[in-house]
Amino acid sequence: MTELTRRTLLVGAGAAAISTPLATASQAAAPPAAKQAPGFYRYKVGDYELTQIADGARGVPITDAYVRNVSKEQALAAAEAAYMPKGMVTVPFNPVVINTGSKLVLIDTGFPPGAGPTIGLLQSNMAAAGIDSKAIDMVVLSHLHPDHINGLKTPTGALAFPNAEIKAPAVDWAFWMSDENMAKFQGNQLMKDYFDNTRKVLSDIAGKVTRYDWGKEVAPGITAIDTPGHTPGHTSFVVASGSGRLLVQSDVTNIPELFLRNPDWHVMYDFDPDKAAATRHRFYDMAAAEKSLIAGFHFAFPSLGHVEKDGTGYRLVPVAWNATL
């Protein structure tokens, strides 16, 4: 019996290539599709039907400052262990649509169409899922970072969800809309960009935005819970229907392969890194104890899974694809 080794596999592949006759014109292969299929995934939480919508993903370089409290080499090693592109992390963006039976609720918006070659896919993927943007009753923002609010508007500046009530966390709104706070961070380019973007997207529609508080329902069966640190008013949500329960974690962790496994690492995007780390421990201890289903905005699509404790950190157990609801 031939022993199966990497060498025998490579030799076998080479022999197969040599023995395969060249294709003739009459045997030409079909042209490549050159694009991905629409990204959406439906599931049930109690009586509610939910649809995870892929807005796309993009690569982000791991710079010296990407993780503030460990070496760049440690961050690179963690990304490499997760089979990410060399020197990069892959960041997905995945809003969720919740059909409560009485309301069609979108949590976070991703980017507008045309924002980049691999992002801004929310509208087209919603359409592929049979969800009309005009039918969205409510858009709930978890926090006011660009990848969560910029899809509120089309590239021409019109409202992308023209019939929807827009809700934003009161604490985040107060922070990012404060001129005094903005003045404090003029020397910090990342924070300056955040302040500028918040005003660009939201200032002219401020009168249409309702501010919500933690601990209260933002929509039927959807309760806002405090998970600050990533931003001052960063919010997650409990979706409950019958015996079903889902935690929409928003950005409690940005890249689970790095910051779920290493919850005390400080990602450059966290406003208050120590508070963000404390929030991760509190949130994931709860989720692990309850064996809760979690939707993560930056989890790999379809962005659903469970969290288990793993040493001093946690590990994500992605859901298995289910063809039925």
Task: Describe the fold and architecture.
The chain is α+β, with helices and mostly antiparallel strands and 325 residues long. The protein has one domain: Ribonuclease Z/Hydroxyacylglutathione hydrolase-like (Metallo-beta-lactamase, Chain A), CATH 3.60.15. The chain has nine helices and 16 strands. It is globular.
Question: Top keywords for this entry?
Answer:
single chain, 325 residues, alpha+beta, Metallo-beta-lactamase, Chain A, 9 helices
Q: Which fold name fills CATH's third level, the topology?
A: Metallo-beta-lactamase, Chain A
Uncertain regions spanning at least 5 consecutive residues = none
Rg for CA atoms: 22 Å
**CATH class group:** Alpha Beta
Secondary-structure content class = alpha+beta
Q: Main beta sheet: strand number and arrangement?
A: 7 strands, mixed
Named at the architecture level, the CATH assignment is: 4-Layer Sandwich
DSSP E strands, number: 16
Distance between the termini: 46 Å
Tell me, briefly, the overall form: globular
Order of helices and strands: HEEEHEEEHEHEHHHEEEEEHHEEE
Mean pLDDT: 93
How many DSSP helices?
Answer: 9
List the domain count as a whole number. 1
Q: Quote the beta fraction.
A: 25-35%
The helix content, as a percent range, equals 25-40%
Strand order of the largest sheet: 1-2-5-6-7-8-9
Report the CATH superfamily.
Ribonuclease Z/Hydroxyacylglutathione hydrolase-like
